[in-house]
Amino acid sequence: MKPHAGSTSDFIRGLGSVLLGTIGSRRGEGAEAALLGVDDAVAAAYEILGRAKGERRTVFALGNGGSQVVAQHVEMDLANRARMRARSFSSTPVVTALCNDHCHEEAYERLLGTQADRGDVLLAISSSGVSRNILAAARSGRRMGMRVITFSGFDADNPLRTAGDLNLWVDSHEYGLVELAHETLVHRLSDLCVAAEEAEQAAGAAAEANARVAEAHAAGSHAAGTQAILGAGARLNGHAARG
Q: Which residue ranges run through the membrane (predicted)?
Protein backbone atom coordinates (compact mmCIF):
# COMPACT_ATOMS: atom_id res chain seq x y z
CA MET A 1 0.00 0.00 0.00
CA LYS A 2 1.45 3.37 -1.01
CA PRO A 3 2.27 5.81 1.80
CA HIS A 4 0.37 9.06 2.04
CA ALA A 5 1.56 11.22 -0.85
CA GLY A 6 0.83 14.62 0.69
CA SER A 7 2.47 16.55 3.50
CA THR A 8 2.52 15.47 7.12
CA SER A 9 -0.18 18.00 7.94
CA ASP A 10 -2.28 16.54 5.12
CA PHE A 11 -1.81 13.08 6.65
CA ILE A 12 -2.93 14.33 10.07
CA ARG A 13 -5.95 16.06 8.58
CA GLY A 14 -6.72 12.86 6.69
CA LEU A 15 -6.65 10.89 9.94
CA GLY A 16 -9.11 13.30 11.51
CA SER A 17 -11.39 13.01 8.50
CA VAL A 18 -11.22 9.21 8.54
CA LEU A 19 -12.01 9.11 12.26
CA LEU A 20 -14.95 11.46 11.99
CA GLY A 21 -16.25 9.38 9.10
CA THR A 22 -16.24 6.14 11.09
CA ILE A 23 -19.40 4.19 10.39
CA GLY A 24 -20.97 1.70 12.77
CA SER A 25 -23.51 -0.97 11.91
CA ARG A 26 -25.23 -3.64 13.95
CA ARG A 27 -25.61 -7.32 13.14
CA GLY A 28 -28.29 -8.05 10.60
CA GLU A 29 -27.79 -4.83 8.69
CA GLY A 30 -26.10 -4.69 5.30
CA ALA A 31 -22.63 -3.22 4.97
CA GLU A 32 -24.09 -0.16 3.27
CA ALA A 33 -26.53 0.54 6.13
CA ALA A 34 -24.75 3.42 7.86
CA LEU A 35 -26.78 3.33 11.05
CA LEU A 36 -24.33 4.89 13.47
CA GLY A 37 -21.98 7.85 13.30
CA VAL A 38 -18.73 7.77 15.23
CA ASP A 39 -20.22 9.07 18.51
CA ASP A 40 -23.08 6.58 18.53
CA ALA A 41 -20.85 3.73 17.36
CA VAL A 42 -18.36 4.29 20.18
CA ALA A 43 -21.21 4.70 22.68
CA ALA A 44 -22.67 1.37 21.55
CA ALA A 45 -19.27 -0.32 21.85
CA TYR A 46 -18.76 1.16 25.31
CA GLU A 47 -22.17 -0.13 26.38
CA ILE A 48 -20.99 -3.65 25.53
CA LEU A 49 -17.69 -3.18 27.37
CA GLY A 50 -19.39 -1.57 30.36
CA ARG A 51 -21.71 -4.54 30.65
CA ALA A 52 -18.72 -6.87 30.47
CA LYS A 53 -17.03 -4.93 33.24
CA GLY A 54 -20.10 -5.10 35.46
CA GLU A 55 -20.47 -8.84 34.85
CA ARG A 56 -16.75 -9.52 35.34
CA ARG A 57 -16.46 -10.90 31.81
CA THR A 58 -13.21 -11.14 29.86
CA VAL A 59 -12.45 -8.90 26.88
CA PHE A 60 -10.39 -10.60 24.17
CA ALA A 61 -8.66 -8.36 21.60
CA LEU A 62 -7.17 -9.93 18.46
CA GLY A 63 -5.34 -8.75 15.37
CA ASN A 64 -2.35 -9.40 13.11
CA GLY A 65 0.80 -7.31 12.86
CA GLY A 66 0.03 -3.67 13.63
CA SER A 67 -3.53 -4.61 14.54
CA GLN A 68 -2.16 -7.01 17.17
CA VAL A 69 -0.20 -4.09 18.65
CA VAL A 70 -3.52 -2.24 18.94
CA ALA A 71 -5.01 -5.35 20.57
CA GLN A 72 -2.18 -5.55 23.10
CA HIS A 73 -2.55 -1.85 23.89
CA VAL A 74 -6.24 -2.20 24.71
CA GLU A 75 -5.46 -5.30 26.80
CA MET A 76 -2.92 -3.29 28.81
CA ASP A 77 -5.24 -0.35 29.41
CA LEU A 78 -8.25 -2.44 30.37
CA ALA A 79 -6.31 -4.75 32.68
CA ASN A 80 -4.06 -2.13 34.25
CA ARG A 81 -6.17 1.00 34.45
CA ALA A 82 -9.80 -0.12 34.14
CA ARG A 83 -9.26 -3.23 36.30
CA MET A 84 -11.00 -5.44 33.75
CA ARG A 85 -10.22 -8.95 32.64
CA ALA A 86 -8.52 -8.63 29.25
CA ARG A 87 -6.43 -10.85 26.97
CA SER A 88 -4.81 -10.51 23.57
CA PHE A 89 -3.22 -13.95 23.03
CA SER A 90 0.24 -12.41 22.67
CA SER A 91 2.22 -15.51 23.68
CA THR A 92 4.43 -16.27 20.69
CA PRO A 93 5.10 -19.93 21.65
CA VAL A 94 1.40 -20.70 22.06
CA VAL A 95 0.26 -18.99 18.86
CA THR A 96 3.07 -20.41 16.72
CA ALA A 97 2.50 -23.90 18.12
CA LEU A 98 -1.14 -23.73 17.08
CA CYS A 99 -0.18 -22.39 13.65
CA ASN A 100 2.33 -25.22 13.25
CA ASP A 101 0.17 -28.05 14.59
CA HIS A 102 -3.04 -26.92 12.92
CA CYS A 103 -3.08 -23.84 10.70
CA HIS A 104 -2.76 -20.09 10.97
CA GLU A 105 -6.42 -19.56 10.18
CA GLU A 106 -7.53 -21.67 13.16
CA ALA A 107 -5.07 -20.41 15.80
CA TYR A 108 -7.19 -17.67 17.40
CA GLU A 109 -10.38 -19.67 16.93
CA ARG A 110 -8.89 -22.60 18.86
CA LEU A 111 -7.64 -20.33 21.63
CA LEU A 112 -11.07 -18.77 22.04
CA GLY A 113 -12.57 -22.24 22.16
CA THR A 114 -10.51 -23.11 25.23
CA GLN A 115 -10.24 -19.71 26.94
CA ALA A 116 -13.45 -17.75 26.28
CA ASP A 117 -16.93 -18.16 27.73
CA ARG A 118 -20.41 -17.16 26.66
CA GLY A 119 -20.95 -13.49 27.45
CA ASP A 120 -17.28 -12.54 27.03
CA VAL A 121 -16.39 -9.82 24.53
CA LEU A 122 -14.22 -10.10 21.41
CA LEU A 123 -12.62 -7.09 19.73
CA ALA A 124 -11.68 -8.37 16.26
CA ILE A 125 -9.31 -5.96 14.51
CA SER A 126 -8.26 -6.13 10.84
CA SER A 127 -7.38 -3.19 8.62
CA SER A 128 -8.44 -5.01 5.45
CA GLY A 129 -11.33 -6.89 7.02
CA VAL A 130 -10.31 -10.04 5.13
CA SER A 131 -7.76 -11.63 7.50
CA ARG A 132 -8.89 -15.24 7.61
CA ASN A 133 -7.81 -15.96 11.17
CA ILE A 134 -9.63 -12.86 12.46
CA LEU A 135 -12.75 -13.75 10.47
CA ALA A 136 -12.66 -17.30 11.84
CA ALA A 137 -12.29 -15.97 15.39
CA ALA A 138 -15.16 -13.50 14.97
CA ARG A 139 -17.50 -16.12 13.56
CA SER A 140 -16.50 -18.65 16.21
CA GLY A 141 -16.99 -16.05 18.93
CA ARG A 142 -20.52 -15.37 17.76
CA ARG A 143 -21.32 -19.08 17.71
CA MET A 144 -20.02 -19.35 21.27
CA GLY A 145 -22.30 -16.55 22.46
CA MET A 146 -19.58 -13.92 22.79
CA ARG A 147 -20.39 -10.28 22.08
CA VAL A 148 -18.27 -9.42 19.05
CA ILE A 149 -17.14 -5.92 18.04
CA THR A 150 -15.21 -5.65 14.77
CA PHE A 151 -12.87 -2.92 13.56
CA SER A 152 -12.06 -2.84 9.86
CA GLY A 153 -11.25 -0.54 6.94
CA PHE A 154 -10.54 -0.70 3.22
CA ASP A 155 -13.51 -1.99 1.18
CA ALA A 156 -17.01 -1.15 2.38
CA ASP A 157 -18.12 -4.72 1.70
CA ASN A 158 -15.27 -6.47 3.51
CA PRO A 159 -16.54 -9.63 5.27
CA LEU A 160 -15.45 -8.61 8.78
CA ARG A 161 -17.76 -5.62 8.59
CA THR A 162 -20.79 -7.89 8.93
CA ALA A 163 -19.25 -10.54 11.21
CA GLY A 164 -19.86 -8.89 14.59
CA ASP A 165 -22.74 -7.79 16.75
CA LEU A 166 -21.37 -4.27 16.26
CA ASN A 167 -19.05 -3.34 13.40
CA LEU A 168 -16.93 -0.19 13.17
CA TRP A 169 -15.54 0.59 9.73
CA VAL A 170 -13.20 3.42 8.66
CA ASP A 171 -13.30 4.60 5.06
CA SER A 172 -9.67 4.41 3.94
CA HIS A 173 -7.43 2.05 1.97
CA GLU A 174 -4.26 3.32 3.62
CA TYR A 175 -2.88 1.00 6.29
CA GLY A 176 -1.38 3.79 8.37
CA LEU A 177 -4.62 5.74 8.56
CA VAL A 178 -6.74 2.66 9.26
CA GLU A 179 -4.43 1.37 12.00
CA LEU A 180 -4.20 4.78 13.66
CA ALA A 181 -7.96 5.19 13.44
CA HIS A 182 -8.49 1.81 15.10
CA GLU A 183 -5.92 2.68 17.77
CA THR A 184 -7.71 5.95 18.46
CA LEU A 185 -11.13 4.28 18.66
CA VAL A 186 -10.03 1.55 21.07
CA HIS A 187 -8.08 4.11 23.10
CA ARG A 188 -11.26 6.13 23.45
CA LEU A 189 -13.12 3.01 24.58
CA SER A 190 -10.37 2.22 27.09
CA ASP A 191 -10.49 5.77 28.44
CA LEU A 192 -14.25 5.50 28.95
CA CYS A 193 -13.77 2.24 30.86
CA VAL A 194 -11.01 3.81 32.95
CA ALA A 195 -13.23 6.81 33.73
CA ALA A 196 -15.98 4.44 34.86
CA GLU A 197 -13.52 2.60 37.12
CA GLU A 198 -12.26 5.86 38.62
CA ALA A 199 -15.83 7.03 39.26
CA GLU A 200 -16.58 3.66 40.88
CA GLN A 201 -13.55 3.96 43.13
CA ALA A 202 -14.40 7.56 44.04
CA ALA A 203 -17.99 6.57 44.89
CA GLY A 204 -16.72 3.68 46.99
CA ALA A 205 -14.27 5.92 48.83
CA ALA A 206 -17.00 8.50 49.47
CA ALA A 207 -19.38 5.83 50.78
CA GLU A 208 -16.67 4.48 53.07
CA ALA A 209 -15.87 7.97 54.35
CA ASN A 210 -19.56 8.69 54.99
CA ALA A 211 -19.89 5.39 56.86
CA ARG A 212 -16.94 6.27 59.05
CA VAL A 213 -18.37 9.71 59.78
CA ALA A 214 -21.71 8.13 60.69
CA GLU A 215 -19.97 5.63 62.95
CA ALA A 216 -18.02 8.43 64.60
CA HIS A 217 -21.20 10.44 65.14
CA ALA A 218 -22.96 7.40 66.56
CA ALA A 219 -20.04 6.64 68.83
CA GLY A 220 -19.92 10.27 69.92
CA SER A 221 -23.65 10.35 70.64
CA HIS A 222 -23.40 7.13 72.62
CA ALA A 223 -20.48 8.48 74.60
CA ALA A 224 -22.34 11.74 75.27
CA GLY A 225 -25.42 9.82 76.42
CA THR A 226 -23.37 7.63 78.72
CA GLN A 227 -21.68 10.69 80.15
CA ALA A 228 -25.07 12.36 80.78
CA ILE A 229 -26.37 9.29 82.61
CA LEU A 230 -23.24 9.09 84.72
CA GLY A 231 -23.49 12.79 85.46
CA ALA A 232 -27.14 12.49 86.46
CA GLY A 233 -26.31 9.55 88.70
CA ALA A 234 -23.56 11.50 90.37
CA ARG A 235 -25.91 14.40 91.00
CA LEU A 236 -28.53 12.10 92.50
CA ASN A 237 -25.95 10.54 94.75
CA GLY A 238 -24.89 13.99 95.85
CA HIS A 239 -28.45 15.00 96.72
CA ALA A 240 -28.95 11.79 98.68
CA ALA A 241 -25.79 12.34 100.64
CA ARG A 242 -26.81 15.89 101.56
CA GLY A 243 -30.30 14.79 102.57
A: none
CATH number of the domain to which 167 belongs: 3.40.50.10490
- 3 DSSP 8-state letter: P
* Domains in the chain, number: 1
CB atoms within 10 A of CB 94: 12
φ/ψ bin of 11: left (φ > 0), alpha (ψ from -120 to 50), beta (otherwise): alpha
Q: Is 24 left (phi over 0), alpha (psi -120 to 50) or beta?
A: beta
As a whole number, mean pLDDT of residues 168-177 equals 94
In a domain, 202, yes or no: no
| Domain membership of residue 71 as a residue range | 8-194
Q: How many residues does the chain have?
A: 243
Cβ proximity of 156 and 31 under 8 Å: yes
Beta bridge partners of 25: 167
If you average pLDDT over residues 93-113, what whole number do you get?
A: 90
Residue 37, in any domain of the structure: yes
Strand ranges of the sheet holding 166-169, from the earlier edge strand across to the other edge:
23-26, 166-169, 147-152, 121-125, 58-62, 85-87
**Does any domain span residue 150?**
yes
pLDDT at 21: 87
In terms of Cβ atoms closer than 10 Å to its own Cβ (0-12, 13-18, 19+), residue 101 is exposed
Pairing between β-strand 23-26 and β-strand 166-169 as defined by DSSP bridges: antiparallel
pLDDT in tens, 30-84: 544 557 999 999 999 999 999 999 999 999 999 999 999 999 999 999 999 999 9
Contact criterion met (CB below 8 Å) for 75 and 123: no
Residue 159 maps to a domain: yes
